[in-house]
Write a structure and sequence with these properties.
Layout (H helix, E strand, L loop, with lengths): L1 H23 L1 H15 L14 H13 L9 E2 L4 E3 L2 E3 L4 E2 L3 H5 L43 H18 E4 L13 E2 L5 E2 L6 E4 L3
Antiparallel strand pairs: 1-4, 2-3, 5-8, 6-7
Helix pairs in contact: 1-3, 1-5, 2-3, 2-5
Pfam families: p450 (PF00067)
Family: Belongs to the cytochrome P450 family.
GO molecular function, one term: heme binding
Length: about 200
């Protein structure tokens, strides 16, 4: 049950942030919609077996996880021996917290880190499955988040269907720059204020 709840919760948070970033960046939303609609055609819905061919959507999800990891800090680790890192001495039985939120916005690792640019993943192999330490929304190694695959499957299918079935407009009088991006503090990085969009059914 814990595994199920963790996967669903992080998935819902990520879909919310993805739709927020897409609403702020209509060019990117249109590009993602064009990919989904041309790939799926008139099937009526996107299934899990379809998402492997949605490469741009995958880049959108990666970029969302980079800027908005579901949890800002990984679960703490405890050191077993003394070591030194960046001039700091870390002693045995020290709790270490990895700040994945800061890593995802580090200008030494990412060009224009505050910008939502899915294309940054076009020509590189950086992935979120724990092999690349510049993108660690689910951790790495033996203690990587066990709900990762459920969360990713949930996000990709849900987001693809939202883009496939609907066009999305801002409420009357609202501009992209007016979308509030404040985060709610807590164990997870949720959007502080609800995202309000107007769905318009797209006839496939």
């Amino acid at each position: 049950m814990d595994l199920f709840l963790a996967g669903v919760d992080t998935g819902a948070i990520t879909v919310t942030w993805a739709m927020t970033e897409l609403a702020r960046n209509p060019r990117i939303m249109k590009k993602a919609q064009a990919e989904v609609r041309s790939s799926i055609g008139n099937k009526g819905k996107v299934t899990e077996s379809d998402v492997d061919q949605l490469h741009y959507l995958n880049m959108v999800v990666k970029e969302t996880l980079r800027l908005h990891p579901p949890a800002p800090l990984l679960l703490p680790r405890e050191t077993m021996s003394h070591f030194e890192i960046n001039g700091y001495h870390i002693y045995p039985k020290t709790q270490v917290h990895v700040n994945v939120w800061a890593i995802g916005r580090d200008p030494n690792l990412w060009k224009n880190p505050e910008e939502f640019l899915p294309e940054r993943f076009m020509d590189n192999s950086v992935d979120f499955r724990g092999q690349h330490f510049e993108l660690l929304p689910f951790g790495a190694g033996r203690r990587i988040c066990p709900g990762m695959y459920m969360a990713i499957a949930t996000v990709e299918v849900a987001l693809a269907n939202l883009l496939y079935r609907f066009n999305w407009n801002l409420p009357n009088g609202m501009r992209e720059a007016d979308i509030n991006m404040e985060e709610a503090a807590g164990l997870t990085v949720r959007k502080k204020f609800a995202l309000n969009l107007v769905p318009i059914l797209h006839h496939c």
